[in-house]
Amino acid sequence: MKMMVLALIFAAVLGEANAVAPNIEGDFARPPDSARPQVWWHWMGGHVSRGGITADLESMKDVGLGGVTLFNLSCEGTPNGCPVAFASPEWFSLVRFAAEECVRLGLDFRFANCAGWTASGGPWVPVEDSMKEFVFSETNAVVGATVRLARPKAKKDFYREIAVVAFPVPKDYRKRSVSEYGCKSMREFSWGNVRRDRRTASASETVDPASVIDLSGKLNPDGTLDWTAPSGTWQVVRCGYTTTAKCNFPAPWGASGYEVDKLDAAAVERHFNAHCKKVADSLGEGRKALKGIVIDSYEVGAFSWTDGLERRYAERWRESTLPLLVALAGHTVGSLAETDERLWRYRRLVADLFAHEYYGTMRRLANAEGLTLAVEPYITACDDLQLGRYCDIPMGEVWPSQKDMLACPGCRNLPSSSAHFWGGRLVDAEAFTQNPCRGTSARWLWDPLAIKACGDAAFARGMNRFVINSFTHQPWNVEGPGMTMGFWGIRYDRTEPWWRCTAALNGYLARCQSLLQQGRIVRDVLVYAGDGAPNRYCEYETNRFGFDIVGSEALKAVRVENGELVSPSGTRYAALVVQPSDWNGAEVCARLDELRRQGVKTDTAALVPDVEEPTGGLRWIHRRYADGTDGYFVCSPNTNEAVTVRVSFRQAGRRPELWDPESGEIRAASDWKEQGGRTEVLLSFERSGSVFVMFRNRPSAALKPF
Questions:
Q1: Could you tell me which residues come within 8 angstroms of residue 395 by beta carbon, excluding any fewer than 6 positions away?
Q2: pTM for the complete prediction?
Q3: Mean pLDDT of residues grouped by 10 in the chain (706 residues)?
Q4: DSSP string, 70-106
């Protein structure tokens, strides 16, 4: 019975992320509610009212939206007054009312895991559970002299000891400066600036790792040591950790507190229970609408320690932690190459803990409540290429601008690659966020046509459900602009003059999403981007093949069948492209050699292109459906003029159909030919135009003649 209950919970959780609808033609004509776009619903500074909640949600339903994700924010320009205090009894009552209204209206309800948008934190997080960083102090010791070590600098008067270590100073030894190493990670934790240092050093310039001793038990409360140097000159290093003091933001008054320790599963669980579970349990009948929890942007900087990290390091790598502590203090321990590798092992451990202890724990706890976890898994201090595995719904971003329709790294293939490789139907997109720092603040100047090409490009990148940023809650009955999210986000709410017209755009998005959420992705190339930590997304440029980009966890999980790579979710790849990387350890190199021996291609030159077109500017994505249909979503980024172009597809033996997601019309292609095992179709796009080119085994029932 217990196993049956667990199976039912698991099925309910994954229903949203992995459900498959059987009828693509019917869903295209009448998109299901699950395919409708949603919005991020922002309650600003606690200015909330029941009347405003009802008016907001009813207006969303009227224009064809499918649900909301609730955020509590306070941005620049949020008015003062007497707002509802975050997490007060009145606030919980209003959240419950909002969820119950979603039940009445048939809307999905989700909420951010804390106030603000930065990660996971709040006033319930004590300093002991906050994010932590390594700190140290050091001094010279000579024979017969008393050694006194200052306590390393601490924030918020929070400090814990790790160890006191010492080593005999080699003759002519000097500690290299940060600039000489060419990177800050040797001493300071600027994770985004890490590079390997491949220079060599003589024995007299390095510390012998075997000479490092542990003096932790000899430290007195006043900082002196019950130890004197036996001979020569020794360097003594006192190592500890303190809080980073980072807090969640931008949060309403009283809603900000320490960001939780991302390397400590127990602390993460306490955060979840203190807020997420409390909100979920308070919803009453509104719980029926609750689908999931969201972790938005990671914007709280680096961390470098957690309690017991030294023990985890020793257990994982089966080596003493003492040389590592000396290296973290900026010394060269062994050769430069040995030091570099030791620091990589440390960073790899931190990155893996971040993925497992933080995102993995949040997912486990959300799933236990019957909920999904959606995450923007990038621009972190660790390995972005592994993080999407540890959520149910990876999220991307769509930041439109006239100069760069995909200005944010979250718009690239990274989120969708996680879903394609590890399994998952949905790839959400924080859609149409406006960034004043890039001169693209909306200010009511954007309209649906201005943002359509940007959204289409995101579809071609693999995102398949838009969560539009943002719908700002209007607590007052006003006719004008009303409450806003400051200068962030497009104005996609009931105060827009063209709000009622969004029904057409929402219908278009729903038709696209109904097809892009079904079937299986078709990819030709798996791009491996290294085992570094940190590891950021590295763009791979091609418009001839579909590709996914992954890190070392995926490389270990992939298998080979008939020379093709097959992911755990069943996605197949004809070739493996290995990107230049700052780090690939011996284990990864051995794995790459093994894959080559098994017949995996590492050159795309012999691959037959999936799509060819002369402009090089069209964007596309290819999916294969359960009934054998091959479907290509193709879009034009040209926002100024119409485009007509002949596009060649790697398809033969079937007549192409053109499915128009704006009108829902299905018609036979009028100008096409088959030659050499390929089908060439003449496509005519209006500005910012798009179409689904479908190759079916039998004609569609709704097919219109050309």
A1: 294, 374, 375, 376, 377, 410, 415, 427, 428, 429, 430, 467
A2: 0.93
A3: 41 55 86 96 97 97 98 89 93 98 98 97 98 96 93 97 96 62 34 35 74 97 95 95 97 96 98 98 98 96 96 97 95 89 94 98 98 95 94 92 55 92 96 73 79 92 96 88 85 92 97 98 96 83 93 96 97 95 84 96 95 94 97 92 96 98 96 97 96 96 78
A4: EEEE--TT---S-PPPTTSHHHHHHHHHHHHHHHHHT
Q: Tell me the three state secondary structure of residue 294.
A: strand
The three-state DSSP-derived secondary structure of 397-411 is EECCCCCCCCCCHHH
Considering Cα of 348, then 354, then 357, then 359, what sign does the dihedral take?
Answer: negative
Distances from the Cα of 602 to the Cα of 295, 498, 525, 565, 575, angstroms: 36, 51, 9, 11, 6
- Give 369-385 as a DSSP string: TT-EEEE---SSSSBHH
Tokens representing 539? Answer: 């763009």
Strands (E), 533-641: 547-550, 559-561, 564-566, 572-573, 575-578, 611-612, 619-624, 630-635
DSSP state of 170: P
CB 410 within 8 A of CB 378: yes
DSSP secondary structure letters along 99-152: HHHHHHHT-EEEEESSSSSSSSB-TT--GGGB-EEEEEEEEEEEBTPPPB-PPP
Q: Please state the φ and ψ torsions of residue 9, each to the nearest 5 degrees.
A: -60, -45
Residue (of 452, 399, 440, 412) closest to 637 by Cα position: 452
Cα 306 versus chain centre, distance: 22
Please report which helix (H) or strand (E) contains residue 56, including its range. helix 50-62
Return the amino acid letter for 64.
G
| Omega prior to 481 cis, within 30 of 0 | no
What is the distance between the alpha carbons of residues 643 and 286, in angstroms, rounded to a whole number? 48
Contact 564, 515 (CB under 8 A): no
Q: How many CB atoms lie within 10 A of CB 232?
A: 12
Contact (CB, 8 A) for 395 and 374: yes
State the CB neighbour count (10 A cutoff) for residue 532: 25
User: Among candidates 605, 557, 554, which has minimal Cα distance to 417?
Assistant: 554
Joined together, the tokens standing for residue 140 give 């010279």
Helix (H, G, I), strand (E, B) or coil at 354: helix
Q: Which amino acid is at 674?
A: E
Cβ contact 232:160 at 8 Å: no
Contact 75, 41 (CB under 8 A): no
In this structure, are strands 575-578 and 525-528 parallel, antiparallel, or unpaired?
parallel
Alpha helix (H) ranges present in 540-580? 552-557
Residue type, 450: A
Tell me the longest C-alpha to C-alpha distance in the chain. Answer: 98
Cα–Cα distance, 67 to 108 (Å, whole number): 4
Please tell me the distance from the alpha carbon of residue 409 to that of residue 418, in angstroms, as a whole number. Answer: 15
Among 468, 68, 35, 34, smallest CA distance to 290 is for: 68
